[in-house]
Amino acid sequence: MKLAITFAVLVLLLLALPHAGPLFHAWQPSLPHPLYTRTSFLALTLAHLSLVLAATLAAVAIGLSLGILATRPASRSLLPTVRAVAVIGQTFPPVAVLAIAVPLLGFGAAPTLFALVLYGVLPVLGQAVAGLDQVPAAALHAADGMGYGRWRRLLDVELPLAAGPIMAGIRLSAIVSVGTATIGSAVGATTLGSPIVEGLVGNNPAYVVQGALLVGVLALTVDAALAAVERRVRR
């Protein structure tokens, strides 16, 4: 139900905002251009969502792989280091990551994608380690007693039992990406941050509100979609 409501609100906004010029003009009559028209809101939303999807998939692949590696008996000594990195990495501001990435990758989507993947890996990694580390020893011993090899035990026992925390990490990673992607417009990426950045630079609060509305509703929609997936995985 929540997903249907948030998705309906998102579609309604995408349909209504291009015709909301009179409404924003009434709110800010001093603005000569109260409605953002440089790029369509639908194109901005699709570009934003594409970046988030690509970054989340990459973050899940990297974070889950590192989480599995860190919880194997042969590399168990890496577990404290992995946990520390997962915590410390969240303290770096996204703007700093973009500032480092731009000289290396140039302007546009590439540095934004790099920053999103870097931030998205950390929640997945932290939750994967937490989930796999909390798998009951009795379940592991039972799998060994049934003759499961390392890979079969991982796929059939450990990952299913750790699916709840892992999905929570994926959900957090995606939501962080939705919000962080807006900053990418400051380095030339096409996202829903474009009207926000242009509004801040040009002292146009109407642009800021239009972009913020879409980012907020998109974040709620993505969260609701992943929450539905998480409920199914937990069952």
UniProtKB/TrEMBL annotation:
Keywords (A to Z) from UniProt: Membrane, Transmembrane, Transmembrane helix, Transport
Location (main, coarse): membrane
Localization of this protein: Cell membrane
Keyword match ATP-binding: no
Keyword Transport: yes
Pfam families registered for this protein in UniProt: BPD_transp_1
UniProt domain ABC transmembrane type-1: residue ranges: 45-226
Coiled-coil spans in chain: none
Residues annotated as transmembrane: 44-70, 82-107, 113-140, 161-187, 207-229
Membrane topology summary: Multi-pass membrane protein
InterPro entries: ABC_transp_perm/SBD, MetI-like, MetI-like_sf
PANTHER family (alphabetical): GLYCINE BETAINE UPTAKE SYSTEM PERMEASE PROTEIN YEHW, GLYCINE BETAINE/L-PROLINE TRANSPORT SYSTEM PERMEASE PROTEIN PROW
Protein known as: Osmoprotectant transport system permease protein
